Amino acid sequence: MTLSGMNISRRKFLAASGGVVATGLVAANLSTLKAVAGGHASAPTGEKGEKHIASSCEMCVNKCGFFAHVVDGRLKKLNPNPKFFKSRAMLCARGNAGAEEPYNPERLTKPLLRVGERGEGKWKEISYEEAFKLVAEKLKEFKVKNENRCSVAFASSEGFQEEIFQYLVQSYGSTNTVRHPTLCLSSVIQGWSSVYGVYPDADLKNSKFVIMFGANRAEAIVTPDTIDFVKYKPEGAKLIYLDPRFTNTAAKADKWFPVKPGTDLAFVLGVINVIIKEKLYDAAFVEQFCDGFADLEAMIAPHTPEWAEKECEIPAVEIRWVAREFAKAAPAAVAYPGRRTSWYVNDVYFRRACAILTAICGCWDAPGGICPKASVPIKNLDPLFPYFEMSDDRIDVASTVKNKLPKDKRSENMPTDSVAYLGEKDGSWLRFRDAIIAQDPYPVEAMIVYKQNFIEAVPNRAKTMEMLKKIKFMAVIDIQMTEVAYFADLVIPESTYLERWDSVHNLAGIWPIATFRQPVVEPVFGTKSMFEIAGGIINEMLKLPELWDDADELEVEDFKYDVVEDIFGKPMEEYIKRQLADHPGAYEQMMKEGVFYLSDQAVYGKTRNPEFRFKTRTGKIELANVKYADKGLNPLPIYAAPRQPEPGKYRMILGRHGFNTHTGTQNNEYLWEIQKENVIWINTQEAKKLGVVSGDYVTVKSSVGEQQVKVFSTEKIRKDCVFFAHGYGRLSPQLSLVYKKGASQAAILEDYLEPISGNAAMHETFVTIAKA
Amino acid sequence: MSQKKYGIVLDAKNCLNCKACTVACKFENGVEVGDEQYRIWVAEKDLKGTYPNLRLDFEPSQCQHCENTPCASVCPTSATYKTDEGVVLIDYKKCIICKACMTACPYDARFVSEVHHAIEKCTFCYHRLPEGREPACVETCPTKVRVFGDLNDPNSKAAKLLAKHDTYQLKPEKNTRPRLFYIIK
After folding, report:
1. Which of A152, A280, B83, B178 could form a disulfide with B87 if both were Cys (CB 3.0 to 4.6 A apart)?
2. ipTM value
3. What pLDDT digit, counting tens, does each position of A143-152 carry?
4. Pairing relationship of beta strands A721-723 and A706-714 according to DSSP bridges
């Protein structure tokens, strides 16, 4: 773009965000926003003066440190904490926009009890005390009726107060908890753990050769990786990027390969083939630390670069070059693990292959390679909860509902009615939902939800609505009227992360650091934290004898002392002090600087010790996984070609960007103004065939739903797939900035499962596109 | 007369177009939400090439704090002025919103602010400088694309970068002599 110098409408940065500008909508919304902004300009407390308070961010999962600049009791700005080395002392767009959260004109302020039909939006304001009493009564009701505490399920998403929510769960005794990992990263955790026993990090600060597979680090911000892969890229280092889309990461890469979707595994096998055939691997490392090399060598033989090229459409000559350069750079070479890997039915095998490539080249626990996460030693309070008799196995484990698997060779030998490695607290969202719908083997009739907007997060929205018909009571704790809140029976507002205390958490990694939260402003609307909410509900539960009659009396007495009195009965500052008690001065440092750490230097090589035992069956790095063989899975990462869309259809692929987190931040006006609605990326030539141009609306249709969305015709995507961003096309009118604007992913994604880790397989849906 | 000469050296190849700088600027300077209201921006340059051989560059920018200042020259009330360090500022009280400066600015860096009832633009976060703090956009940037400093101080990071690298400036044909220097990759 050239700067025209003309005084036309100022559109320089808008042209940047996706190629389409919704001018009409902008004009329509602007006056309302200004009215709102004027409305909350005054200080709520009457306090005078300026202060800078250390705390940490909750706009995404990274939890970057900041100093909140508070002027006359009102938060003015969040500034990056220079000591927060994990995020290299930065704060992203979302981190900055967080300063609007306490003052968001549509945030939840009072507990709301539904008075109309579900989803009608008719509510009655009640007090927190009434809300706590109601939740406790309902917990009793379903326990008594079903004689099974598992008839109440608990859903939550990642966050500092999630541990407090889990205290509430354990005080009730349901095993049915369901968390975010199986909509996100459970397959990459399983894949790498199956080789090393842990899910490690990549040292991008020192790596000389990096292969990233769809992990769009320029936009899907993960600290410190997003900074390191650009700012600290060593002189002469190379970044190789595979993605069907030309993302901002592709723009920074030395080579971009628009890989055929679902075939990244073929590429990695081709690379491993060259490295083994040309004996480029680290034989000494393999000999000393790895198990199963002979099996791998036999399996890999047919997977030549020429074979791989036919599968993944990346030239054999490039695969050879990548293999040789990777081996040359080892151990400072990275096959990047990634984070949101809810892609395909065989995702675990693909992640295993990346881990195996890393292992045979010895790129493990060394500068510039893949390293196990280190942590800051913080005391875990780990209180004991009573054991309740009236409990059962998790419903996604106990149920015999069938897994939905795509019909091709990849699904052969995959579990059909279970998940091979199901996280005990995480569950598997898709099986969980199917089992509730089937009420198999027992009914789940109530849900308590902490900040998990599963209506928009879980593929196949129509099916989630079907599940909700089985749920007779749903209480939701959140800061805003998400879809799940909108369709709930009781909504309990939480204080934002800027208005509450959160306990200390260790952010594990190559550069581990611990942080916490303290209120930077008083709760603007008198809301309560999860800590206060859980404490309040538990107090009401204690008044109902029916909730404690299937537990040992002494255990209940201990619980009353250890949990109710000693944790919930004291302020969160006490909890934090106990967590840091082993380190003199740590509490004071935390309060002042917002961080606690033992060193800001990375430590390498602890596990490169012949005495070290990896957390695998053999204690070695397992190139062939012994337990997989026992479970009927393939011990090696075998490849089968993915099914392809028939003519006239496109594969829906997903991806992240740095302006929003999932579905949680779109109603923040400072982020909304960057991207007001999502657009569907269609390859220029395909758009021509469909007779559409950028700005047209199209109907995107799958077997489970359809959505209308604006076209972005672009060279930046392959012809066989389409993409649009997450978090738009919303159902809750109280997210007015994005209500019915753009398209919802959950509405059109089909619910295929990756059954080794239980992850959703979100890149398996084929759609048709027609001009709307 | 101050010896200081403030400027920014930018390494745009490190820009991720993440918009951290533009959001930080809005909060720091109380710039209202709105598509016309912004002091700084990140331009996404035209995509070059055809699939699969593509190239995409980003160019963060703002008021250039020109040494030869067309906006100040046309201002009928002297509302726009230059500090000793060469920072171009606006005295909101003197501004009559005649918009002559908006027309004169070759960089489209100015806009009408309803908050100040005046024309507004980047100030290099002049209010932060006495406290030794960097402009908000510089501080918040993940990859530290902008490096702010005293170009007259050979030990400043900005001066060192400027000495080490070839740089280009925006619209040199306008003879504005900007204080923003873009490193040539």
Report:
1. B83
2. 0.97
3. 999 999 999 9
4. unpaired
